[in-house]
Every structure is written in structure tokens, then in C-alpha cells.
Amino acid sequence: MADPGAASFLTRANALLRKNLTYQKRNIGTNVRLIMIPFFLCLFLLAIQIVFDALINNADDNRCGCQCIVTNQNGNCINKTCGIEYSSSDQAFFCPISSPPRWPPLLQVPPPESRAVNSTFLPDIGLPNESCRRTGTCPVTILFTGNNRSLGASLYGNLLPSSVTVNISDNSEHLLQSLAYNVLGTETEPELTNYLDPGIASNLSIYNIQSGCSPNDTFPFSFGQDRLKFQKELRCTQGLNLWRNNSKEVNDVIFKGYRKGNPEGKTNEIGAAYDLLNTDRNNFNVHIWYNSTYREGSDDRPSTLLRVPGLVNLVSNAYLHFLQGPGTKILFEYVKEVPKLESRLRLDIASLIGPLFFTWVILLLFPVILSSLVYEKQERLRIIMKMHGLGDGPYWMISYAYFLSISVLYFVCLMIFGSAIGLKFFRINDYSIQFTFYFLYVNLQIALCFLLSSIFSKVKTSTVASYIYVFAAGLVGSFLLQFLIEDSSFSRGWIIVLELLPPFSLYRGLYEFGEYAFQGNLSGTDGMKWKDFSESAMDEVFIIIIVEWFLALIAAYYIDKIVSSGKDPLFFLKSSFKKSPSLRRPSLQRQGFKVVVEMEKPDVTQEIEKVEQLMLEQSTSHAIICDNLKKVYPSRDGNPPKLAVRGISLAVPSGECFGMLGPNGAGKTSFINMMTGLLKPTSGTGLVRGLDICNDMDKVYTSMGVCPQHDLLWETLTGREHLLFYGRLKNLKGSNLIQAVEESLKSVNLFHGGVADKPAGKYSGGMKRRLSVAISLIGNPKVVYMDEPSTGLDPASRNNLWTVIKRAKQNTAIILTTHSMEEAEFLCDRLGIFVDGSLQCIGNPKELKGRYGGSYVFTMTTSSENEGDVEKLIQDVSPNAKKIYHIAGTQKFELPKEEVRISEVFQAVEKAKSSFTVFAWGLADTTLEDVFIKVARTGQAFNVFS
């Protein structure tokens, strides 16, 4: 098959996306369970709301009262009538009012003990002495200012009537008109509605404010009818109008009259104030000050009415008097609420407790995403994908988009289901605000998962930690953050500081949704809309989430570059211009350093000289070149540094399989890890097809295949799906991809019997090993590293695998590690024996056996009595022979080849048979295993004493 070339960015991204979608399909059960969690929580909230409605919202005490009119013989009511007249004080609030009562307009005036008097902290502006408080005769003070003082004097002189004009014998209809000629006030605070004015319904008197009156003048009268009939007392109170020079003075007096505005901490209130501005005969322009400090709630959401209309009417009448004379009046007869239908208590408890549950719902994605990323790290799937050509760019783009798509689908399902079952939390608030908020937060959550995945190495640890984080965040938000938000004395700045923690910014947003839904449902209005965005805390929450998302994403990418790619922490400051691949780094020898090579290793010396020559060439047919490659592990736990690889120089041309032999711990895997980018060399360099493994590893990966020592597979993906994924990474497409996958499956005996379409988690160890070999070879990579590829295979499968590898090496450079001498002889064109991190010898199997196997092995079995005869026989044949084995009559000897001829050995044995009984005998040449053992022992002994 022709070389498909390097895969493009989009091709690799497409491969990862297809793999992720297939993986998601395999885990559909887990996904369904994940989606069902918010469904169950929404149903749980709905159940709580239904129970609350039955016990509280629909309770008899929270509904308009009724009386039974007709009962049947059993005493059951068959006809009833409802209304205010049948209701208790609690029930009356919910009754329909088709014709609301009319109330006389009242001014809000300070109580007698709080009215402004002369004091040390106020300038002497004409206020009465404090003695009036003891007699209850302190006036209600009204301040004036403006550009024209003479006009102001005319206006405030006409502001208040001079006498009481009330006919107490009038009925309620005429009494309202009679009261309209007076200025009435009350110290009783208003309520949210005006269906029942507390100033009329309370036991306190109504004040009639005049320019002058006798102390304690009172006028009793009756107001209203039926159940809303009140006996009231109209008490005369003097009004005091004072002029100030400008609005600053007015503001100063009003502020100092407020309890917290003066050093004595006592109220000294002004009733109201007017700034006439530029009012004249042609212009009427007035600012009115009034006291609203008693109001509950925040400034942008008042919870009570304000008694302002009467103040407007007073100054308007005074201006008409100024223009037209005292005969012209605007009679302000009454105030009245609009009619209302029967209402019921609508406390949406689900919206109040919803933030806790929905915080958990959204945060439940956190452990799912984090464990997925840590799983790829724990199982080393990320690095094996990278070794087969998946760059950081496609990985980040597809992984992020993949998790974002899952997250969006998750919270959209939550919104749809919550709305469908009728939760006001979702239905009242603007859907676009909700979607934007959730969308921004899940982006932040994904970025945090990428960032935190670099901390954890085990899935279990990350899962436990993330679930603790999820539930702790919800509980702390509900029992601490919400308490601090609702505490008006707690600094808003500290609230913002707390919201810098991502789960608290999530909880704050959900809390605002819940509050707006609760208030909207209670008052029958809309919840949060975009017009409320700046008035609520959502603007600051959005800003915090966006900024933190941006910072977390940059930090996650930066740390990933350092951890997964082995880059320098200051890589972004490095020059973007890399070395040309043709510029070879001088070897240590050319830099003036002496390379020490033992004289008994001429093959190693020859390889070093070959590498030195290749490093000087501009181009070469050698796919792999290593020049004095070293790896030193730093000291740890008091141990000295570990020299794992001691300056290896090696050149492997295309079409050659180079076998690496060596005992465990010799440094073979460290060498492979350096060449595949898992480890960074301490010194030296390695070139793969002219590309430096230290600087150009991302390009190296596009033409590389790896069969790691341990199988790195997705348990839920099938063998076919693994090969399709890695085939796409190698730029195989269409029919070429299908053909390559089928050929790979057939070559490793995974095609028939449905094995190709079984999940890899159900494969045996040998089947997984064969699949790993097939993955490393798909797409005809130019360089392949195989770390013990036939481990765990039965003889038949092993021989078949050897055939596959031997066929694949025609256009590929393969470096293979193995402990099987038979495998090494069958597959490898050349062998290198590693001992303690250094090469002891290099050559093809025949050369090594000829070079290091300079003896025959003679074996003979006789009776115990004839063992001495066997030893004498060997001494006659080879005086320098060595006994290497002896047990129960069986003896083995090493015979130097230069001392014996095979024919002489046969003649000696035939002659010996006539003297004593020989049960069995044999003469064998040195095996590769013998060579390996000999070289390994010699190398270890040399390193111990060197």
C-alpha cells in the first residue's frame, strides 16, 4: 500500500471525534443514568412543592373564608358562599374585591416624639424648643428653598389651611369630599397595597395639619360601612413652614434629623421639603423630599407604598392660589386600589430550595469529565494516541467540544424537563438568560477539569475528591453564602470575593434565579428578564465566570504542554524558529571530548564511528540515529542519581529490525521511552527520519508506530474500532482504511469468529497483545518501536505474529525488545545486547554466536561409577575443557573450538563405548542464549569493577 502521508489537522480531529462518539455509544447506559439524576431531582422538588401546596398554599387559613348556606341531611355542605364578610383577618387578604374602598389621601408625618425641634447639632432655623415633646404639641416642619424667596413665601403661606373644615355629620360619601379641603396625615406606615389603609384602620388619630390651631383640638367622626366602619379622631396639628437658602442646607437639615445622621442618635425628623427651583408665573418646577427610611426591601424593589401624592397636591394647590387666588383648588378627594380577583397564597418553595439541588445537578458533570480525563492519563491512552500522530491541537479542540456538547445537552434536558413538569424556577425566568448562564459556567467547569486533571494520576482519587467537592459546594453555598447574601450588614465586596470560587459563582446565579422566580410567582409577575440583569448580581457573576474561564483555559493548556509534552516551563519565551533538521549537532568527540570505548568492543566502536559519519551528512537512508544518548534519573529519597542509559550510539536503516536484548533493568525501556517522547534525554540527541526527538517530536509522531510493553486499549471499544481510529490518524481513508483494517485483523487472527467486533475488555491477554501489534503497524509507519510484542502468546500465535512483523519491516525501521532468543533470531537483522544501560555488542545473530560462542557444549550421561572415565575422556580430547554441569551421572563440558575437531570427539566417544556403558551423549554449538548469558555476565562484572 502506498504511503498515505501525514494526516492533516482536520483528519486527526475527525478520527478522535469518531472514536469519542463510538465510545459514548458504548457507554449509553452510564449516560442515561447521568441524565436521570436531574430528572429525579426535578421530580423530587415537584413532590415537595405539591406537599407544600396542600399543607400551606391551599390551607383554609390561606384562602378567602366561606360560609355554608345549604346542608343536606347528613350535614354536608352542598352550597356555600365566600367573601370578606365570612373571612378572618388572615383570610380576607385572599378574597376578591370588586369595588375597593376609597380612602382619604394621607401624608406621612413623624410621630410627635420624633418631630424636629431645636438641638445642638442643627443650626437655629426657627424650630421650637424640645419642651413641646412633653406636651405633644410639636409642629410638623416643612422646609422650602428655591431661586425666588418671595415666590416661595407666597407658596408656603398658601400651603396649609388655617382652620378645620369637616362636617362630622356627613355620611361617608360626603365626608370624603369634606376631608379633601383639609391636609390629613398619619404616623402609621403604609403597606404593600391600599385595599385597607393602616392609617384609617389603626387605633391612632389622624392629624389635621393647619397653619395654626389650638393645642389638642380633636374632632371625632365615623368612616366607612359594614365591617370596614371605623371610629376615628381628627387631631389638630400645627404645620411649620421654614425657608432655607439652598438645597444643600435642606439636605443637611434632613440628614441630621435622621437618627444615624446626628451624634445624639435621636430622630429629629422633618415632615417634607420642597425645592421650587426656577418656578415663576410661567414655570412650575419642583423637587420634593420625603421620608422613605421606613421602607423594607432594597432600593430597587420597594415593598411598601409611598404617601407622595398628597405632597404633590399641596404644592400644586399653593401654586394655583398664587396664580388664581384662594378660590381655585384641586380637590384630592380619595385614593383607591384597582379591583382584584380572588387570590391565593403562592409560595414557591421549590424555587427557594432549588439553588441547592441545581448546584448539585450542574456540578455532577465535574466528576464525570474529570474522571474521563484522568482515566486517559492513568491508562496512558493520551500518550499512546499522541505517539500515533494525534497532536495537542486536535486533542484539545475535539475533547473540549465533545465535553461541551455533552454538557449543553445535559443542561438543556434539565431546562426542558424542569419546565415541562411546571417548576417556576425554569418557567418564569427568561430562558435566554438561563441558557447563557449555564453555557458560560459549563465552559468554566470544563476548563477547570482540564486544569485539575494534571494534579490527579488515579481515577479513584479524582472521583472521590470531585464528589466531595460537589456536595460540599452545594451545602456551603446554601448554608453560608446564602446567609451572607441575605445579611445586609455583610460587605458586598466580600461577597464578590467569595464568588471568585467557581461553585459559589454558580450558586449565586442559581440563587438569583430562585429569588426572582419566587417573587414573580408570589406577585403574579415575570421572573428575571434582561432588564433586570444589571440590577441583580448576574452581571458580576457573568464577568467572574468569563474571566475565570479564560484564565483556567490558558493555565490548563500551559500545564498540559509542560507535563504531557515535556516542554520547558518557559517554552513560550523561546524563539519560534527551530533548527533545521539538516543541521546535525556535533558529537562529544567532535566537541573535543574523548569518548572512552573498551577495546574488547570493536563492534560498538564501529557503530559509534558510523553514527559520527551519519551525523555529518545532510541526508541519510537511516530512519533512526542515536548519538551518545544518555538518561540520568535524579536522586530521590537519599539515593544517588541513577544512570539508566550510558551514552548509546546507534543507527538503524529503513528495512531493518534491530533487536535489543538485555536483562531486566538494563535500560531498554528507558531508551524506548526517550525515542518515543515519554522521557527527555539528559544529554545526546536522537534523530528519527532527520527530525530531532527533543524539538520535533510532534512531527516524528506522524510517521511512528508503537507497541508498548503493556497494552493501552479502551475496554469498551472493539478491535476493529481501535484500528479504524488509529488508521484515520495515519491518514487512511475510505476503502483504503477498510482494507487496511481488515488485513490487519486477519494478519493477527482477530478477524474471524466475531472477535473483531468484541470489546477489547473481553479479549484475552494474547488477543490484546496481537491487537497492540496490529495498531503499531497500521498505516505503514516509517518507524516502529515494539517492547516485547509476543509476551503471553501461545507458540502458534507467536509464529504467526513473527511473520506479520517480518513482512512489515520491508519499508520500516523497527526497534524491538525481547527476552526470547528464538524471536530475536527469527526477526532481527541485527542485535544489540544491553547491560546496565550500555551496549556490550552489536551484530547479526550469526556474527554474535561466532564472536562470543567460541566453544562446543559436550553432554554425556553414564552410571555414577563411570563419571571419572568421562572426565578422563574429555581431558584427552580437550585439556582446557570446563565442567559446567553435573548431576546424577549427567555431565556437561565446554570445549574450546580451537582445541578440538568434531571428528575427534566422535572417535573418542566410540572408543569409550567399548570401555563403559554410555546412556546418552551430545555435542552442540553455542546458542544465542549462551551468548546472551555470557555477554550479560561479562558486562555486569565490568560495570561493577569499573
UniProtKB/TrEMBL annotation:
Pfam families for this protein: ABC2_membrane_3, ABC_tran, ABCA12_C
Annotated localization: Membrane
Similarity-based family: Belongs to the ABC transporter superfamily. ABCA family. CPR flippase (TC 3.A.1.211) subfamily.
Domain ABC transporter: residue ranges: 624-861
Membrane topology annotation: Multi-pass membrane protein
Record key words, sorted: ATP-binding, Membrane, Nucleotide-binding, Transmembrane, Transmembrane helix
InterPro entries in the cross-refs: AAA+_ATPase, ABC2_TM, ABC_transporter-like_ATP-bd, ABC_transporter-like_CS, ABCA, P-loop_NTPase
Principal cellular location given in the protein's record: membrane
GO CC annotation terms, alphabetical: membrane
Domain of life: Eukaryota
GO molecular function, one term: ATP binding
Transmembrane region(s): 34-56, 352-375, 395-423, 435-455, 467-485, 541-559
Naturally occurring in which organism (per UniProt): Eruca vesicaria subsp. sativa (Garden rocket)
Protein name according to UniProt: ABC transporter domain-containing protein
